[in-house]
Amino acid sequence: MASRITIEVTRYNPARDPEPRMTSYEVPLHREWVVLDALNCIKDHLDGSLTFRWSCRMGVCGSCGMMINGVPKLACATFLSDYAPGPVRVEPMRHFPILRDLVVDTSDFLMKLARSKPWIIRTVEKPADEEHIQTPAQLEEYRQFSMCINCLLCYAACPIYGLDPQFTGPAAIALAQRYNMDSRDEGASERLDSLSNREGIWGCMFVGECTQVCPKHVDPAGAIQQYKLTAATEWLKAMVLPRGAK
Amino acid sequence: MLDISSHDVVIVGGGGAGLRAAIAVAETDPLISVAVISKVYPMRSHTVAAEGGAAGVRLDDDSFDQHAYDTVSGGDWLCDQDAVEAFVKEAPLELMRLEHWGCPWSREPDGRIAVRPFGGMRTTRTWFAADETGFHLLHTLFQTSLKYDSVTRYDEYFVTTLLVDDGRVQGVVAIELTTGKVQAVTAKAVILCTGGCGRIFRYTTNAAIKTGDGMALAYRAGAPLKDMEFVQYHPTGLPFTGILISEAARAEGGHLLNKDGYRYLQDYDLGKPELTPVLRSMELGPRDRLSQAFIREQHKGRTVEGPYGPVVYLDLRHLGEKTISTKLPFVRELCLKYENIDPVTQLIPVRPVVHYMMGGVHTDMNGATPLPGLYAAGEAACVSINGANRLGSNSLPELLVFGARAGRAASAYAADQPPPSRRLLAGALEEEARLNDHYLQKRGGRERIADLREEMQRIMEHSVGIYRSGESLTGAADKLHELQERSCDVHLDDRGRLFNTELISALELSFMLEIAETMAQAAMERTESRGAHQRTDYPARNDENFLTHSLAYRDAAGRPQVEYIPVTITRWPPAERVYGREPPNGE
Amino acid sequence: MSTYWWLARWSYLTFILREASSVFVGWTVLLTLVQIWALTHGPSANAAFHEWMRYPLMLGVNVIAFLFVLFHAVTWFGLTPKAMVIRVKGQRVPDWAISGPNYAAWVLVSLGVAWVVLRG
Fold this sequence. Notes:
The complex is a heterotrimer of chains A (246), B (587) and C (120). With 587 residues, chain B is of the alpha/beta class. Helices cover 34% and strands 19% of the residues of chain B. In chain C, helix 1 packs antiparallel against helix 2 (42-53), helix 1 (10-39) crosses helix 3 and helix 3 runs antiparallel to helix 4. The longest helix of chain C has 30 residues, at 10-39. Chain C has a two-stranded antiparallel ribbon with strand order 1-2. Chains in contact: A-B, A-C.
């Protein structure tokens, strides 16, 4: 294995630069080094102004999503050695405004997440010391969708979101579906009202890339297609059944 | 340039404790305005990384007293027993509350919440959500917090100082990372929920953000830090990343080998090697004993020198691919994905890594610090229920119970407070000037942040590691103080305003150095061995002189002064801390 | 986004091809309607239709249309396991068990149609 590798990183300071540019750095290539280690090496020893987010370094905090050789990936879970002899191209996540270098503005997602009402909605609360019974099978219904770490790689992979920033997007819809499928929840129709529209589930054209890039195997594409099926069934029921019979 | 906003209660930190506190305030009264200020988006907080579970009495054969006794004895009798009693009573209610909010707790076949055994707990009482309990707990809290209109979030704001006037904490000054703008947020009460400070050490399971910000903020404002000498190590972390390899790997039959392939634990009074794992023996001995054995093995020159320091090997190969893939899928995934090692065919290099701070900002049972208007909860605080050694799966319920308590207490306190003083503005302007003069507009500067950080970590490892001694500790606090002075001459490559992470690193370094000094000083002055604090020159526990909490105050010269207060003992007088057999008093 | 973003990745390209296939599905439907019209307007209209269909251009277009319609059908059946989650004894039914019967039904119907058309 070569002992060093070149890494090309997007540099951009909106206060100063007219547009983003690529800068190359040479870093040591170790078997256990991930792209994030290369970035930290640059920041610690070569250029302290290189800007990126990171925290847990074990693929669960969701901070370090980036485009690595054009593919959305977590920098902490992407080995440099997989790209030897290099160079490795590291860019900010696509489809988001760049704040600085590799840091993008994700506040749009937070807004959309809140609109999906990702919390348990019930008409009557259980007493404080009483649990809901939920069988392992019922847990399995939504468990996969509850694994979302909000890393937003799925937004970077979704061309629909790139073309239409109004689109609610994969993670926020998958999390709505996570609560819809939870046996403790009674808020499905409330959520459907805010998501069964062109900005919501019907905006999805099923490109399927969100599922491909998801580091947690959430399958947002599947979630959205299932949501569409539910929405269509509800619509049909409303058309066919007389009022009040639902 | 300075922006000002105002809330009734300001919470610093958006992890488990901070979000639980925010919800508690919102539920107390929707008219109370509450702000959550966090340097990362709340769901990035380190609560997310907790794997094991959350302890709370659940089964018929269990009782509050048993949970309390396990906690007190595990903590080597340094826990405040009144706090522990309140904690064990409220823990199951808090965990049930999480259930109502949607936490996907793992279930029994009949649909009831499942519990599992955990190290140090003598009966089954650990609630869990698969292998990712902290992750689910944090996201459940975060998503639930979104429904409260009275909660305002300041995401990616870094708090640099507390605003104190008239002897009361009345707000904070923060940098908005996105713009670099300095923001004063005034409040009638401030709750610190910023977590621990594992990053002071080189080898740690802690995330990059765990730099003890809240502890340093409180300490600088005049509140004491309690029991800072107690640092918990986990015996099997990956050397490079610090990622924790769960006890389950050893429970399934993994062996710890030294450089000769020898199961060295048999040399340290931890039983004899058997083919199948035996509870509380060899690899399944207590965490601190395993960590200590590593150091003694290292001194004998029988560890392996790896690129990231000395290691021993965790050998799972004899278990076979089938067992590893079905019983330990997460362990295999972590090794493969983050360290490029396959445990089916390769030895896993491991070493003890810093995992948790028992110490923190001194609070009472309601999270109140001695400084009026200032509260703390979670790992940042020391109530203390963890004593000299925290029991696995007590930290998640702790942040829920005391997060909620602090939220309620701060709400009640805020209701009686006058509006923030006008003089706070001067304090905020002063802080803005400090940030400019010391960092952004300073000329020159010779020190690199990374160098100072490595130096700090080297000092800590040498002097305040798993084993300490008068010899190793002598001068440590002075050296750390010297580093603090050198950190004033730090050179920043980045003098911009927008998302200046280098500035944040410099401020975090200064915070860490502040806390590191209290650790060294408190460790120096506690001349006994108790729980996680092991002195080679004072190997025995000394209840006569040290059944006390240390409190480190910052003096006018910026140096820690250590005082002591007695431990609260209600029902469980100090006894021997026993492993592998029944305790003598039959509790 | 660049105008040619859909050329950047194979998955984007197949997505665009699938979207484009709708045009050919529409064309096939239209052609069927014209054919029905021709059948109901006597032998000469039908003969003219068949004559028209023999033009090389028409043959070419229809070969392409056939391929696109085939592609459309495959992607549609590929979608079914995503949209339908069926569990038996707590285990999620594998994808092939959902798309398989769909394919089988498709083949059977196609064979039926072929039998009706070709037996005479």
